[in-house]
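Homework help board

Subject: predicted structure for assignment chain

Our instructor gave us this sequence and asked us to write out the predicted structure in token form, then describe one feature. I got the tokens but I'm not sure how to describe them. Can anyone check?
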Amino acid sequence: MKQGGFLAPVVLVAILGAWCLFLGKPLKPPVQGLGWQVAEEPWSPVTGFTKVDPYPLYVATYTADYRLSKYLETGSYSPSMIQGEPSCTCFYAAGSGVYGRNFDFPPNPVLLLFTYPEDGYASVSLVDLGYFGYSLSELPDAEDLESLTTTPYLPFDGMNEAGLVVGMAAIPHAEPPFSPNKVTIGEIQVIRLLLDRAVTVDEALALLDNYNVQMVEPPIHYLVADATGASAIIEYVGGERRVVNGSSFNVMTNFLVTETDMTGGAPCWRYSLVAEGLTEAQGMVSPDEAMALLRGASQDHTIWSVVYSQATGEARVAVGRGYGHVLVFKLGSAETG
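My token output:
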């Protein structure tokens, strides 16, 4: 699958002035088994690993085949241990094609990851490196990145070159349906599936029909949006999938929308704050206005705030509530990546 429309992958970063990082796509070393090896020396598929913010925030490109097709046959890729209880805010403003997301979790290093699969769409996503054993006191070593080989399988949100955006948030419970005839994939790996293989919300829903989804602690739901302005909250309750389609906007935090009567108001102040802002704006906010909404909904443990712009392929990122230092990155297409 190839999808054009965005410019070549250029990372635009403002740090004490303007500078540019041009992302290449190096040749791949031989692939053996489920890992990658180069004779006598360790090799990692993560390249261009660069620290761009002292929080820290890193940027990298994943250059190898992370074998989503193989994973989808078995539902196994040797993932790192899932841990913790995130509380997050996601919203989509259909009129302006802007998707905002706060990831609220104990502080860990953050990786903004570009991927260019040969059998899927290019995408940019954000990864919490705490799931790979790192912390703010134990940071990755740019000379030894083998531990980041499976980072494509743990995107907590992201956007692909076709403009499909996906984010997740924790909820009290989730019970997906199960079929013994379907491969079971992980709840975070759902995001990778959709980023690599879907262009529209309808395609995303159709893809999910082909797999069982395994929920661990904490269970989650998803907000998916596409470049046509369609969006949907996807929840699994009582062995069935439930979908809440958006109109001019859609908002998701940490309660089950399909189990909540909101005639008297939402049970989450972050949801109410964002929904009121989007209602007043009639579903049309600029990326800067979206970041302002995320700032208002942020908490002490907000690791990152990201605004994805479908029309431009840009991701604006603030880490550690550093809203005075927003970094701007641009996603290129798989054809030019």
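Reply (TA_rk): Your tokens look well-formed. For the description, you could write something like this. The two ends are 13 Å apart (CA to CA). That's the kind of observation they're looking for.
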